[in-house]
Amino acid sequence: MAPSTHPAPLPRVRVLATGGTIAGAQTGSSRSYQAGAFSIDALIAAVPQLATLARLEVEQVAALGSQDMNEAIWLKLAARAEAALADPDIAAVVITHGTDTMEETAYFLSLVIKSDKPVVMVGSMRPATATSADGPANLYNAVAVAIHPDAKGRGVLVVLNDEIHYAREIEKQNSTQLDTFKSPNRGRAGVANTGAVHFFNKPAAPHTTASEFSVDGVDILPRVEIIYSYANLGRDFIDCAVEKGAKGLVLAGVGDGNSTDPALAALGNAVNKGVVVVRSSRTGSGLVVRNVEIDDDKMGTVAAMELNPQKARVLLMLSLMKTSNPKDIQDKFLKY
Predict the structure, then answer these.
(1) Which residue among 117, 147, 194, 319 is least enclosed by CB atoms within 10 Å?
(2) Per-residue pLDDT tens for 251-289?
(3) Which of 18, 21, 96, 208 is catalytic?
(4) Is the dihedral of CA 208, 189, 162, 104 positive or negative?
(5) pTM, two decimal places
(6) Cα–Cα distance for residue pair 161/181, rounded to 1 Å
């Protein structure tokens, strides 16, 4: 019998859309635009080449700029991604998202999704109607990464500007440029150019199926606020956050997670009231380790290690669902 000449069916990929600049439309001048103006169907229709990569199924989870991303949508995204990945016929999930808070959403999902199937987040720095919009190429590359066999087991990935980044490592470092995303501590996960995918290294920390965190049945996350350190910072904002019910505080400290004497005194008072305090750095890269300039053992504070303040907030929220013991939470920051 002659071998079959029918090609293998293309993989099925679920696309979860949340809006963002990639779905943005200019509203007047060449610079102003409304994020999330276009549906995901319109974005996919603008990239007909996607039909050669995968069979796409779309779901509009939200339609907003990611400056308005919130924990309720995080929880919904996690649930919808889990549901899609549980389908044996779904090969991967792609999530369209604004770039402003993409790194936070990506890190959150990387800690709570329980699947080794690829999850790829994608956005753009220019709206869909802009001259030389970057969204179509980014979306094409994101789908190519999602269906690549080497993407499995790498946790949540972020694809923009022909680059692949791990959720734990990525940071937005420029307000407008196409190469805004960097992974300053451990480098890119790989590159993706016109659908050609190359991975460089493995993730540095546990994620997805190896993570201890879950948000199944969770409706609300513990309240954690970020305190930004600067010259002459007083204690008022710290005291206010504690009075308003914050269960955790992240210090976006100067240098290696330091701050003024009044601020440190207020943080010490917060610890004494049962609030967990994590020291991170506003610098954008490097390590914040225990007991260097600050005596964490004496203060009862937690060192964020490589995590920037916004990601430290994510890990602290999830950790507080399991424990409020600073020593146990420090172990989680050393691990994740």
Answers:
(1) 194
(2) 999 999 999 999 999 999 999 999 999 999 999 999 999
(3) 21
(4) positive
(5) 0.94
(6) 8
